[in-house]
Amino acid sequence: xxxxxxxxxxxxxxxxxxxxxxxxxxxxxxxxxxxxxxxxxxxxxxxxxxxxxxxxxxxxxxxxxxxxxxxxxxxxxxxxxxxxxxxxxxxxxxxxxxxxxxxxxxxxxxxxxxxxxxxxxxxxxxxxxxx
Length: 131
Description:
five-stranded antiparallel β-sheet, about 130 residues
């Protein structure tokens, strides 16, 4: 049973094409994308909230999950709680590689929400990070 579970886990990794997350950026474009996301007022506010209310030291950082391809023109960016032993995504964004337009990735409803629309609505649980 243990071998089966390990085999399924390894197979899942190969099938999904896992990419390493990067909080620093390896190019000027990636650094710009991360800077845009990290400087959003909602992210700055959430980071401050987390620093004031979390029991242990935690912070929010933007990570590039995937870069644009010929068929997909967006950087996929997650804003994660770096809790030392794991990352927990609080927000997901997509950034257009050509225009740097930012969209909130509403994966629950399978749609991209323009940043200005997302900023106008609290979006319920997305208004403050979970602790």
